[in-house]
Design goal:
2 domains; 10 strands; 22% strand; alpha/beta; 42% helix; 278 residues; globular; ten-stranded mixed β-sheet; Rossmann fold
C-alpha cells in the first residue's frame, strides 16, 4: 500500500514553485505546499511580470498594477504555506523571458526540484503547453514536476515511459526509487511506432524490469504499437496512474534548450502530474 505521507524523493531541501497567479497555477501551488510539508523542505515561490522596455515606457501604470497583483498573489501563497507550517520565501521579478529568471533562481537557491503548472495565462492550445514551462524544463538544473490545475503530486501508481535511451533510464531509476520509498505500484511502457520495432520495445521494458527487480520492486510492463505520446497518456488514463515519469529527451537527442517532442506532448495531454527527470 502506498504511503502518501512519505517524501518520495531523497534530500529535498529546496523547492522552487513557479506561479503566475492564474487558475492554471492553482494545482501547482496547492501541491507544492503539500510536497514541501511532506519533505520538510523550504519552499521558494517565484512570479515574473513579463514586460519589455517599450511596454514600460508606454504603459508604466499597467506594469505597476500587474506588479501589485503579483505581490498580492505571492503573499497569499506564503500565507497558505505558513498555515501548513512550511517555511516560505517569495521572489518577484519583472522583465523579458520569465523562464530565464526561473532557471537562474533555481540555480541560485540550489533547488532540488521545480514545481509548476502545465501552462500559464497565455497557454490555450490543447496540444501545447505554455512556452515558459517548456523552456524551464529545457534549461532547468534539476527535475521538474508539472502539475495540471486539478492534478495531485501523488505516487500510488507510477507510469514510467522508456525508449531505451540514457534519459529514459534515468527516469526509470527515479521512478523505481520513488516506488521503493512510497510503496508504489510501478508500470513501465515502451511504444513502437511500427510493428517491426516491437521487439526493441520489449527489450526496453525488460531493462526497466531488471532495474526494478534488483531493488525488490514489482513492475507491470506494456509494449504497444502506435503514436508514443498518445499511447503513454491513454495507458496512464486506463491504468489510473497518478504520476508519469519521463526523461527530457529521447533517442533523437535534441538541443539542450528544447525538450523531446514526445515528452512535451505527454505533459500537454497527461491526465495526471508529470515528473521530468533531468
Amino acid at each position: 500500500m502506498a504511503n502518501t505521507e512519505v517524501c518520495p524523493i531523497t534530500e529535498i531541501k529546496s523547492i522552487l514553485l513557479a506561479t503566475d497567479g492564474s487558475e492554471f497555477s492553482s494545482g501547482a501551488v496547492r501541491e507544492a505546499i503539500r510536497f514541501a510539508q511532506r519533505c520538510n523542505s523550504k519552499l521558494y515561490v517565484i512570479s515574473v511580470v513579463e514586460t519589455n522596455p517599450e511596454f514600460e515606457i508606454y504603459g508604466p501604470e499597467v506594469v505597476e498594477k500587474i506588479e501589485k497583483q503579483t505581490r498580492v498573489s505571492l503573499e497569499k501563497v506564503k500565507e497558505q504555506a505558513d498555515k501548513e507550517g512550511v517555511t516560505c520565501e517569495i521572489i518577484a521579478h519583472r522583465g523579458e523571458n520569465a523562464s530565464e529568471f526561473i532557471i537562474k533562481e533555481a540555480e541560485r537557491i540550489n533547488a532540488n526540484v521545480i514545481i509548476m503548472g502545465r501552462r500559464g495565462r497565455s497557454g490555450i492550445k490543447r496540444l501545447m503547453m505554455g512556452s515558459v514551462t517548456a523552456l524551464v524544463i529545457g534549461g532547468a538544473p534539476c527535475d521538474v514536476f508539472v502539475v495540471p490545475r486539478a492534478g495531485e503530486l501523488s505516487c500510488r501508481r507510477i507510469l514510467v515511459a522508456t525508449d531505451g535511451s540514457e534519459y529514459s533510464e534515468k527516469a526509470a531509476r527515479e521512478a523505481i526509487g520513488i516506488a521503493k520509498r512510497c510503496g508504489s505500484t510501478v508500470l513501465a511502457i515502451s511504444v513502437a511506432e511500427k510493428e517491426e520495432y516491437i521487439t526493441q520495445a520489449e527489450e526496453h521494458v525488460n531493462a526497466v524490469k531488471e532495474i526494478a527487480s534488483s531493488e525488490g520492486i514489482e513492475i507491470e510492463t506494456f509494449t504497444v504499437t502506435g503514436t508514443p505520446y498518445e499511447a503513454i497518456t491513454t495507458t496512464a488514463q486506463i491504468k489510473k496512474a497518478d504520476l508519469i515519469v519521463v526523461g527530457t529527451h529521447g533517442r533523437t537527442g535534441l538541443q539542450k534548450l528544447l525538450m523531446g517532442s514526445v515528452a512535451e506532448r505527454v505533459i500537454a495531454l497527461s491526465p495526471c502530474s508529470v515528473l521530468v527527470v533531468k
